[in-house]
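Troubleshooting log. The previous structure file for this entry was overwritten by mistake, so regenerating from the original sequence record. Sequence copied from the archived sheet and checked twice against the printout by T.R.
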Amino acid sequence: MTSAPADGLRERKKARTRASIREHALRLFGEQGYQATTVEQIAAAAEVSQSTFFRYFPTKEDVVLQDDMDVRMLAALDEQPLGLRPVAAVRAATRQLLASYTEADLDLLRQTTALTMTVPEIRARALDEFARTIGAIGAAMAKRAGRSPDDLAVRAAAGAIVGVIMAITLPWADWPSDATLEDTFATIDQALALLEAGLPL
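Regenerated output below.
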C-alpha cells in the first residue's frame, strides 16, 4: 500500500541528485574550463561520492550530453495523431518540444550545445548518444505502427530521421557564430521536410 509513494519519493530524490550533479558540473565547466574540471571536483561540489557520480553519469562527457530532451521528445511524439506518417510526427513533436522549453531550459541547452561544439571529447561521445537516440525513436515508431523495434522498415525510418538531424547538426564549424537554438531547430525542421518529401534534389 505504501510502496507507490515511497517509489515516487525515491525517484524525485534521484532526479534532484542528478540535477544537482549536472548543475555543479556545468558551473565548474564555465568557471574553469571543461578539461580543467575533474569528476572529483564535480562530486565534491554536489556533495556526493565519485561512485555516486558514475552511477548517474558513466563519463564526464555524459554530464553535458544526457539531458531530458529525449524524454520530452518521446512524450511529445506519443501525443501525435497515429494517422501522421513517421517524419511528420517527428516534425510536429520537435516543434512541441521547442515550445515546451522555458527560457531557463533554453539557457541550459545553449550552454551544453556550446560545450558539444567546442570540446572534442564531447563531440566524439555525442555519436554514441545519436546511436542511442536511433534506438529510442525506433521503439517509439514501432509502438505507433504496431510493429517490432527490429522491423527493417522501423529501423530504416528511425535511422533516416536521426541521420538527417546528424547531417545538419554535426558540422559545427559550418554554423554562423550568431546562430541561435531557434535557428538550429528551424534548420532541422527544413531538413526533415526534405526527408518527408522524398529528398528531392
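The chain has two domains: 3-57, 64-196. Archived copy saved in two places this time.
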